[in-house]
Amino acid sequence: MRSPRTTHPLPPRRRRGQVLAIAAVLLAATACTSGQEAKDSRQGQTGFVSGTGRVSSFAPADRVKAPDFKGTTLDGKQWNFSDQAGKVVVLNVWGSWCPPCRKEAPDFAAAAKELGPNVQFIGLNTRDLDPAPAKKFVEAFEIPYPSIYDPAGKQLLLFRGQKISAVSIPATLVIDKQGKVASRVIGEVTKQTLLGMVNDAAAG
After folding, report:
1. What's the whole-model pTM score?
2. Angle, nearest 10°, between helix axes 131-140 and 99-115?
3. Closest CA to 68 of 96, 89, 98
4. Of 8, 55, 88, 152, which shows the fewest CB atoms inside 10 Å?
């Protein structure tokens, strides 16, 4: 008569290794699913997908009036927000010293060219104590729209109610045709995000 077969349990170290490997696979699968679900959710809510920045969009009833900012541009001209009535305005706060600003600059230039004159892009250059680096930035990235030169951040202070400050650069606001803030990005933004934000503002 053959003796019953004996099963030997795995050594504790090998058992722990297998458990950890299975847990890692399950965790990775859950993370991928959650990430895709979050992305799909953002697309459904806002109509655009954010880049690396944090995007906030506001329903028409919840929008707050943008401050009446103004100033002298890098090319020496006067620019006033009050003169832009009836237009969607895209405001980008930037500095030539800011690496994410350099990274997003080509997207801003491309979006401004694609959207054309019906959408007013305006930069707000801050903390560049010498305008020369800022001018070189505009030239290097072929930025087609003006930028207000605001080295001391006086105009930037007007946006404290929009949670934009000297430490939240780059930052972007899209302002609807009624002069109210339709969406905000704190951080770097992509061309696709900009186009979606403008379309949302125009539709509202």
Report:
1. 0.74
2. 50
3. 89
4. 8
CB 186 within 8 A of CB 164: yes
163: left (phi over 0), alpha (psi -120 to 50) or beta: left
Q: Are 133 and 96 in contact (CB under 8 A)?
A: yes
| Burial degree of 67 (CB within 10 A; 0-12, 13-18, 19+) | middle
Query: HSE on the CB side for 147, CA within 13 Å?
Result: 27
* Vertex 81: Cα angle to 80 and 82 (nearest 5): 90
pLDDT at 97 over 90: yes
pLDDT of 184: 95
Amino acid at 177: K
